[in-house]
Amino acid sequence: MNRAISLGAAAAIVAVAGAAFVAGGMPRARPFAAPSIMPSARAAETGAIYYQDPDGKPLYSPTPKKTPDGRDWRAVPADTDVSFNDPEETSADKKAAEAKPERRIKFYRNPMGLPDKSPTPKKDNMGMAYIAVYEDEDSDDGSVKLSPGRIQRSGAKSEPVMRQPVRSVIRVPGTIQLDERRVSVVTLRFEGFVESVANVTTGDHVQKGQPLMNVYSPAISSAAAEYLSAISVGAAGKELKGARRRLENLAMPEPAVKEIERTREISLSIPWLAPQDGEILERNAVNGMRAAPGEVLFRIADHQIVWALLDVAERDLPQVTIGAKATIHPRALAGHTFTGTVALIYPHLNARTRTARIRVEVPNPDEVLRPEMYVDAEIETGAPDPVLAVPESAILDNGARQAVLIDRGDGRFEPREIRSGRRGGGYVEIVKGVTEGEAVVTSANFLIDAESNLKAALKGFAEADEMQRPAGQEPRP
């Protein structure tokens, strides 16, 4: 019956408060919907103090009722109605409190946070009671203890420290460039004349050994005649080898040398061959032109492997390593991806953009990647080996230190300083400070940390006040 009276009184207070708000000119607020009448005799017999709508709507009745579709309203017994209970005191909490041994009070501290404590209950000059500090709450390790209700309301959650790989992806822009090692030029080592040029031009694909032009030169004709003379007289050893070496020094193609050995004749002009497979980037040879030594007549490039030159931000550069896997997404080829590896990290930074350039070698068998294409790349960083790691949300970082909160059980939490390493995938590597299996707080940890810091500060103030107080003097009110 006392329970029912308290419910009725509370509902009346809520109703009066709602009426006061409306009368005072404030916007009309909907008061908390709770049973505002005494339970019926029928409810008292069944142990229910009232009945509630089965769909959870804020509708209540002192007597049994049914919904329009024929369902019974839900009976609410006294031991489950916690609408007006102290959030810290449910029936389960009361039972647990009765089972625990009595806690001993160590001292009372000032309610306003002043450096003052008292061995007996007292009030300050404003009439506020001092706050009791229990022995199990006053630890020297900076830990803090919270009641189950406060932990539940704050949403604090813990996870064990585990070993797992910590990998992350760096996304950067870049461009496609030719592999410098796969570009060659066609020149002459002697002064000569281009008698004719093959039917090839810029952009054409040529095969290694394919004729590009026919070349005539007195120098190469003279060397060929000397070699043929040595063959004809049956010269051997150093003399024959020296005559052949002169042709090689003039870069005469090997098929042309073998043709002289086979026919024992010297052609007026010699076919000049492509040195490699690839596309012609530049053609300067023209029929009948005079070619000087070293003059570039053709430039040929192989596109089977290209470079992706990527610009990585200075802050991300330490995470990139040689051999790291990179995925290339050309902007012009939607849906196409290419995979390569980091081959080189250039030694200089761009002073204006604060980025470093890295080189990724990318196979291009279909030759769809073209020089100067824009690409977006994803570089995988981190080691595949598992390391001690915690979720990123567990780290408390104020710029000067990094810490986590260790869940020691029974509502006690201990702040512990750590040293972190790599980050990736929502986790942070812990280099120092925790051991595998320890539980760390991953949610609402900043609230617990704030309370721990406040507790440590109040304790420090109190200790400083005691040291400065003369012997025998009472604490300040």
Automatic annotation (TrEMBL):
Positions of the CusB-like barrel-sandwich hybrid domain: 183-301
Biased composition (Basic and acidic residues): 91-102
Record has Signal as a keyword: yes
Top-level taxonomic group: Bacteria
GO cellular component terms attached to this protein's record: membrane; outer membrane-bounded periplasmic space
Location of region: Disordered: 52-102, 139-162
Family: Belongs to the membrane fusion protein (MFP) (TC 8.A.1) family.
Record-level Gene Ontology MF annotations: transition metal ion binding; transmembrane transporter activity
Keywords from the UniProt entry: Ion transport, Signal, Transport
Listed name of the protein: Membrane fusion protein, Cu(I)/Ag(I) efflux system
Biological process (GO), any one: copper ion export
Every CusB-like beta-barrel domain range: 306-380
Pfam families on file: Beta-barrel_RND_2, BSH_CusB, CzcB_C
Keyword flag Plastid: no
